[in-house]
Every structure is written in structure tokens, then in C-alpha cells.
Amino acid sequence: MSDNQYRIEVSPAAYFVEEQSDVAADRYVFAYRIRIVNTGQQPAKLLSRHWLITDANGHVQEVRGMGVVGEHPHLKPGEHYEYLSGATLTTPWGTMKGSYQMEADDGTRFDAPIAEFLLAVPRVLH
């Protein structure tokens, strides 16, 4: 088994959702778009997700669940899938990181890591 047989790249992009936030009540809403690309040689299906969401005070919220936004995308080599979701913090910034649990068509299960990314209110709003 070569390492490049099972490879999923995950690219996150996050932004502050001012109209859904209430800064006076310490409610900061962020949306994030995730792009998942199968850069490996085997088709694979996303089974579940695992997130660690950390606010500016170091409080960590762990989220586990099946699929993403109610779906279990199946990606052939070269295919991609995108979705939009969100997170709410009680601080004006925080981070997210995690992984997707994948299953290749040959039955091999593997993790697709999601590098840490920043959730932050733009400085203009401070």
C-alpha cells in the first residue's frame, strides 16, 4: 500500500457572520467553507467528522458526528466536494482543527486531517 493511494486534502476558509452575532452578549458566529479533494488513487467515502473548536480562553468544544451537513460524499480520484457550515464562540476569535474519517472502496479506513484554521472577528469591528 503506497501512501498516495489514500489521500484527501481539506481546505478550510472561515469568515465572521456579523448579522447573526451579538457582540454585546459575547456571541460570535462564524461560517466556514470546506473543500475536500480526493488526491489519492482510491475512491473514498466520508464516514464521519471530528472537530476541536477552541475559543480565545482555551475552552475546547469537541464535536463528533456522522457525515458532513447530513451527507456522506463519495469522491473518486480527482473529484471534490464543498460545503458550508458554522460555529459559534463566546470570544471574538478561536481556532478549529480536526479530521474526517474516510473509507476507501477497498474497505481501508483512514483519517483525512484538517489543519488548524482561525475564526476571527475582523479588526475593523473592535
UniProtKB/TrEMBL annotation:
Pfam families for the chain: DUF525
Domain ApaG: 2-126
InterPro entries: ApaG-like, ApaG_domain, ApaG_sf, Uncharacterised_ApaG
PROSITE patterns (alphabetical): APAG
Transmembrane residue ranges: none
Organism superkingdom: Bacteria
SUPFAM superfamilies membership: ApaG-like (SSF110069)
Xref: HAMAP family: ApaG (MF_00791)
Protein name: Protein ApaG
Organism of derivation: Crenobacter luteus
Gene: apaG
